[in-house]
Structure formats: C-alpha cells, structure tokens
C-alpha cells in the first residue's frame, strides 16, 4: 500500500521535473528501450509462448517482431491479461513456484516504453538470444540418468485443420500397468515440434479404483469416477517433480483421460500428446502420498445459472487427515468469473488461501504454492470452494446471456470445481513440518529486524 503511494509521489515528481526542464534527462526518467530494458523481460516472461513455432500468434523475440504489437501489448500487460496469470494479487498466498506474471515494476517499464514511442535503443545493449530447444526432448530423463521416461502414454491422433475452430479432444487410453507403481515425476509434451503450434493446453486425468476414501478423488461418487488430474500441461511448463519422499500412486487397471485444447496453427497439423511417467525404483516407496482432489461444485445440481444473472456456488471438502495443500486449479467454463479457496480450521478460524478473480477459460492454470508457504492444515479442516459465474452480457466470453446454464461437460455448460493437490501425513510428521515452518518464519522475521 505505502509502496504504491510512494510510486505515485515519485511519478508526480518526474512529471513536474519533465515540465520544467524537458531536456535535462536523468538516468531515472530516460525512457526504457527495447534492447536494454524490454528484451530481457520478454525473454523471461513472454518468449516461452511468443516465439516462432510456439502457441502464441506472434513472436516477440526481436524489436522488429514486437514493434507492430506495441499498442496491444500495452493493453494486455496493463490489464494483466498477459502473461496469463489470474491470481488476485490482493488476497491470499502470493508466492508460487510457477509464477509467470510480471512484477509491478516490469509492467510499469513496459508501459513507459510504449508511451515513449517504443524506442529500439542501442543494438549493443541487446541481450544474447535466449536458447529454446528446437528438438523434442524429455526434461527429467537426464536428471534421473535415463534415456527417457519409464512409461510413455500417448493420446490418439487428432488433425487440426488450418483455420478450424478450437477443438477439445478427449480420448481415453489405458495405462497398461500391471502392478501398483509410485510416481516421482511426470511430464507432458506434444508429439512433434509442429504439434506445439496447435497444442494450446493438455490435461491428463488419472482414473483408477481407490478403496480408501482418503484417497478418493472426490466426496461425490459420481465425480470420483472421473479420476483426478494427473498432470496439466501448458506452454512453458516442463513437468511436475514430486517433493522428496512423496509421490503419486498408479494402480493396475488405471486409465488416462485426455483433455487436449487444440487451436489454429495456420496449416493442417496432425499430432498426438505424450505423457511421460518416471517411477520410483521398486522397493523405494516414498513416505507420503500426494492426491489430486476435485473440490467444490461436487453437487452437480448446484450449478444452476438463470439467464442474465450472476450466480454463486459453494462446495466443501473435509480433510480426513493432516496435509499440505500444494496447488489450486480452478475449473469453470465460459461463464466462470472468479473462484476462491478458503480454509475453515477446526478452531473455526477462516483463512482465504487463494482467489482467482478474473478467470479465463483459455488458461487452465495450476497455481503451485512455494515450499515455504504451502498451507499446512490439520485434519478436520474444511476447504471451501466458492465459484462465481457471470451469465450476463457484461461477460465478454459469454456466448449467450439469454439461456439457462446447467452443469455439464460441454464448454457451453458449466462446472464449478477446483483441482487441489494434497500431500497427506500422520500426526508426528505433521508436527515436524509445522515446527520446521515456524523455525523458517522466525528466521525471516529475525533477518528483517536485523536489516532495519
Ligand atoms: C503461456 C503462454 C503465453 C505467455 C507466457 C505470454 N503469452 Fe501473450 N499470448 C499467448 C496466446 C496463446 C495468445 C493468443 C490468444 C489470446 O489472445 O489470448 C497471446 C496473445 C497476446 C497478445 C494479443 C495479440 C493480439 O492479437 O493483439 C499480446 C499483446 C500478448 N500476448 C503479449 C504478451 C506479452 C507482452 C507477454 C509477456 C510479458 C506474453 N504475451 C506472454 C500466449 C502467451
């Protein structure tokens, strides 16, 4: 709060100085240039998608690539629509492992650059080009000293025609495993380099029979049958490495439900998506099991949205064991507006963990909490998922505000749940984790005090 105010005063001071002595430019008010200030930001935060042969419609690698898009960049960046990251910055936990958003300073730098006429700057300031692998590799293979994953599960092929509408491709494939196996890492990749141009997003859900209700995907048996998200892939995301000593368990008879979002690649492309799975060696079982739960929206009848109305739905999930909440992934469709995850502790105390307030159906992001802030919650905690749907004409993604919308699989139907990853632990381990967290917090307050 006070930081923002300071910036305001500083900004005003610059404006006044510029009025009085327009020529006496100091380092602080020299407009940012592409080569010196903008290219490093674009390399870090945009090129993953905005480069040749990737998912975004234009490259932002060179000045010549980026310059024609200046106006659009200003709008998207200032509104925080780009890079896609919809976490509300005013409530809940703010530290994530996979944060791809721009800092306030970076947004300001980009806006100032464009307002100054988007100057190129000195060629010698340009950073070395960022290296993006052009070949198809498996990210974790070398880390584990392997040639590839232990198991590769492929979706069935889809041909995305040039200029065709976006498609959601949902094949179901057996995993083929014959004994229970513990998973230590997973990664997803399009089947070919060309496939990256059309593969907007892919979700692989693991469906299997769970006997212990603690590990069931959902409290609602009809939804539990859907199976939990095994992994979600979006451009720029490498994969998911389990924390030390934890893993996901895959059972015989399991299936992968694919949910792949293909978009227009400007030419006909046929491709598959591959899920690479790395197992813990047999006999080296991890201590903790991670489960991806479907929370909220579990009462399908609750999603009942009248025409021209805004509707709120709530769903509750009781934690049957102590656990660490690892991630939050809201799932709604075109009328989805916002979603919040709140913890109601056994003491009755309520904590907002996360909120997405400008939900965008095109970006099904999983927000992964950083290690030192992932909530540690005692058994008996209730996780409450609140979803807001906007079925009015003010929602620009709304295909038709004059129809009633109910629960369903099609994009014109609605859903109101979150995928939440929980690592379960018994009382003794939970206490150890809590103590470690308190020690960490104590240390950082001490450091702050020393710095003051
Ligand atoms: C995760 C992938 C991803 C990242 C990261 C990303 N973009 Fe995008 N961007 C896209 C896609 C896909 C589109 C096209 C769909 C859309 O408009 O939302 C797009 C569209 C845009 C547009 C709109 C172009 C138009 O049609 O006017 C702008 C501007 C933009 N991005 C700027 C940026 C900037 C600047 C950054 C980095 C600060 C960035 N993007 C980071 C994927 C990404």
Provide a descriptive summary of the structure in words:
Strand 17 (336-344) and strand 18 form a beta hairpin. The protein has 452 residues and is α+β, with helices and mostly antiparallel strands. Helix 2 (34-45) crosses helix 5 (104-115) and helix 4 packs antiparallel against helix 5. The chain folds into three domains: 1-25; 31-125, no CATH class; 156-431, Jelly Rolls, CATH 2.60.120.230. Mean pLDDT is 86; it is low at 1-26. Helix content is 20%, strand content 29%. The chain is built from eight helices and 23 strands. Heme C binds at residues 45-46, 48-50, 55-57, 60, 69, 72-73, 76-77, 82-84, 100, 102, 234-236, 362.
Q: What labels describe this entry?
A:
single chain, 452 residues, alpha+beta, five-stranded antiparallel beta sheet, disordered N terminus, binds heme C
């Amino acid at each position: 709060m006070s930081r923002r105010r300071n910036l305001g005063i500083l900004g005003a001071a610059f404006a006044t100085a510029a009025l009085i002595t327009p020529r006496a430019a100091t380092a602080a008010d020299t407009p940012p240039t592409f080569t010196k200030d903008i290219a490093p930001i674009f390399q870090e935060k945009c090129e993953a998608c905005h480069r040749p042969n990737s998912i975004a419609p234009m490259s932002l690698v060179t000045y010549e690539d980026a310059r024609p898009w200046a106006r659009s960049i200003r709008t998207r960046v200032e509104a925080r629509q780009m890079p896609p990251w919809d976490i509300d910055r005013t409530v809940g936990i703010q530290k994530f492992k996979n944060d791809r958003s721009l800092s306030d300073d970076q947004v300001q730098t980009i806006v100032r650059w464009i307002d100054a006429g988007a100057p190129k700057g000195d060629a010698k300031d340009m950073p070395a080009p960022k290296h993006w692998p052009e070949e198809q590799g498996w990210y974790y293979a070398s880390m584990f000293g392997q040639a590839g994953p232990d198991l590769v599960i492929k979706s069935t092929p889809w041909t995305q025609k040039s200029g065709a509408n976006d498609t959601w491709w949902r094949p179901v494939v057996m995993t083929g495993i014959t004994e229970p196996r513990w998973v230590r890492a997973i990664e997803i990749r399009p089947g070919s380099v060309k496939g990256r141009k059309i593969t907007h997003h892919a979700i692989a859900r693991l469906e299997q029979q769970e006997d212990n209700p603690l590990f069931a995907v959902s409290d609602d048996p009809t939804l539990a049958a859907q199976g939990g998200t095994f992994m979600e892939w979006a451009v720029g995301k490498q994969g998911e490495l389990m924390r030390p000593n934890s893993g996901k368990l895959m059972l015989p008879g399991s299936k992968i439900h694919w949910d792949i979002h293909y978009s227009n690649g400007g030419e006909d492309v046929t491709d598959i998506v591959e899920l690479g799975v790395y197992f813990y060696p047999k006999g080296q079982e991890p201590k903790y099991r991670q489960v991806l739960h479907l929370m909220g929206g579990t009462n399908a009848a609750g999603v009942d949205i009248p025409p021209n109305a805004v509707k709120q739905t709530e769903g509750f999930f009781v934690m049957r064991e102590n656990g660490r909440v690892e991630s939050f992934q809201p799932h709604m469709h075109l009328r989805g507006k916002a979603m919040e995850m709140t913890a109601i502790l056994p003491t009755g105390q309520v904590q907002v963990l996360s909120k997405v307030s400008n939900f965008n159906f095109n970006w099904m992001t999983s927000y992964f909490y950083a290690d030192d802030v992932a909530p540690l919650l005692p058994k008996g905690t209730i996780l409450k998922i609140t979803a807001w749907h906007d079925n009015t004409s003010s929602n620009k993604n709304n295909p038709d505000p004059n129809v009633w919308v109910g629960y369903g699989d099609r994009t014109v139907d609605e859903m109101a749940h979150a995928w939440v990853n929980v690592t379960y632990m018994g009382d003794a381990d939970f206490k150890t984790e809590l103590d470690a967290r308190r020690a960490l917090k104590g240390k950082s307050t001490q450091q702050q005090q020393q710095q003051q």
